Amino acid sequence: MTLQQMEYIVAVDKYRHFVKAAESCHVTQSTLSVMIQKLEDELDVQIFNRNSHPVSPTPIGEKIISQAKVVLFNVSQLKEMILSERQQESGEVKLGVIPTVAPYILPKLFGVIAERYPGVTLRVTETRSASILEKLDKAELDVGLLATPVGRPGLLEIPVYYEKFVAYISPGESLYNREEIESGRMPTERLWVLQEGHCLRNQVMNICDQRSGYSSIYEAGSIDTLVKIVDENGGYTIIPELHLAMLTEAQKAHVRKIVDPAPVREVSLMIRQDYVRERMLNILAESIRRILPEAMIDKRLKKFAISL
Amino acid sequence: MTLQQMEYIVAVDKYRHFVKAAESCHVTQSTLSVMIQKLEDELDVQIFNRNSHPVSPTPIGEKIISQAKVVLFNVSQLKEMILSERQQESGEVKLGVIPTVAPYILPKLFGVIAERYPGVTLRVTETRSASILEKLDKAELDVGLLATPVGRPGLLEIPVYYEKFVAYISPGESLYNREEIESGRMPTERLWVLQEGHCLRNQVMNICDQRSGYSSIYEAGSIDTLVKIVDENGGYTIIPELHLAMLTEAQKAHVRKIVDPAPVREVSLMIRQDYVRERMLNILAESIRRILPEAMIDKRLKKFAISL
DNA sequence: TCATGGTTATTGATTTTATCAATACAAATA
DNA sequence: TATTTGTATTGATAAAATCAATAACCATGA
């Protein structure tokens, strides 16, 4: 029993005439005759009555034809579904990602997208929050991936994951001896932070003890550099959870959990309010989440999230 | 796109392994590989990701597989439907038919049944009502076809059609000059009727004017004979509508409508109350009705029906 | 880095199937 | 009885599915 045979019996039922039905199927009448007989043999039922003029389906043939139509309908649905999916799952997306997220997400994201959505082309710009927001405004970017909430008029935020912060401490520091560090007990005197303009800098400022004045005068350009500075010069810094994977075993020993409360940043996809490719957004969100550990997607972390 | 290919992708999705899936489909792994690639080429989508281990469907592949399952389910439904229909539409039926119905129904009934329900074998006995009822009681017959209502305990009646009576009058009779004859104006003096035992005899008695005494002393064994008797000896008789088709053109001129009210007999299928093959009954009823003019199936005639 | 085992892809030969053109056959019509 | 209209049959051919063998790929542990 084949789809082709089903098309043939549906055609003969429609035209009540083998020759006309054969034409409509773009085959000869003999093909139709043979194939329908074959089907009748296989199912061991007579579908058509060739004695009556014009040819007509038997009672059971009518039921077979009607079910065959259901089958063919679902096949056509399948094909249409593919067309519509492909349409929605293809095209170029201009994505802006902030530097303190990019190194943890992008390398795998390209692979996942290429593998799962071969029709999608990512065109990524790594740049700081302010620049991403501006470019979204000007529609120079389709989507941004950055720390939120931002609350910018005309733009929408779609939270994707929540990332905890940890402290990276030089063995010389007094904090080093604690197993965990309470958020309120982090002096800013020996703190290294990113350059002005990185949103992570502001977040770090929020975490640390505001009573003490800032005295660390060196500002780094990337988390990697920050860590190296601490290694060389002592002091401490605050780094996002995902950076742990990039530390050596020796460096991991310098990491301390921050608690009470554990600071968390919310990372979201951002789009213009008039962005219409909802499906593309889902693809991005799904693909990013696929890269991350389950726990980081948990919305319950949101309550600890800090803003700029 | 073939059903076979759909089975293949469903199997690969199930086993996540080409070799195992191939086994389950009773083909080699190379066949599966080639066929699935062919399907992917035709649809121009990647259904599976062969890089991941174990092999896994792409997002669109998942949708395709799930729709393919729907199609395959439809096909299996079709096959099961055929099995169940064939079961219900086959077997032998012992049918009893009264003599004043048999000649009009049976010749075509055999043809219709053979053509539309090749699995059904009719075994027909032509005999009078009382004998049919008896044999139904003793389960020597499965179904009876006779004039109703009978109202016999343990038996069910399923009305199939309604047949008018007409008068067949010798040109010598005074009634012959009327275009139509009122039921009440039919004297029994010159009336020929069937032998005792034919239910039609009783029905005719009911139609005719009861005030006059019966004087016709000859009783015929069949409608055909009755008509010939009238042709040869004068007088008149009453015959069922379906007999008209058996008259010559000359004889048809001797036919007069009976009106006010037009007498009608109800013809029904009868079965034992415990008869279980409901489907077979429908087949018989449908096939009989297929033989008759539309008008005779009209239930509105029931109100004119006469009983024994 | 190199084998190794497990997995899928490729290939050429072979079998099976679908299709066609031509023609036979059957039924209805004139 | 011829004729027309329609379906079945048949033998040849083209297309396809399948197989066995083997290549290519890839993760993983030595």
Please provide a written account of the structure.
Chain A is an alpha/beta fold and 308 residues long. Chain A is 42% helix and 22% strand. Chain A contains 10 helices and 12 strands. Chain A has helices spanning 3-15, 18-25, 29-43, 59-88, 102-116, 129-137, 199-207, 223-233, 249-252, 278-291; strands at 48-49, 56-57, 91-97, 120-126, 143-148, 155-169, 180-182, 191-194, 219-220, 236-240, 255-259, 264-272. In chain A, a hairpin with a 6-residue loop joins strand 1 and strand 2 (56-57). The longest helix of chain A is centred in the N-terminal third of the chain and has 30 residues, at 59-88. Chains A and B meet through helix 4 of A and helix 4 of B. Chain A binds a DNA duplex (30 and 30 nucleotides) through residues 4, 17-19, 27-35, 37-38, 50-51, 53-55.
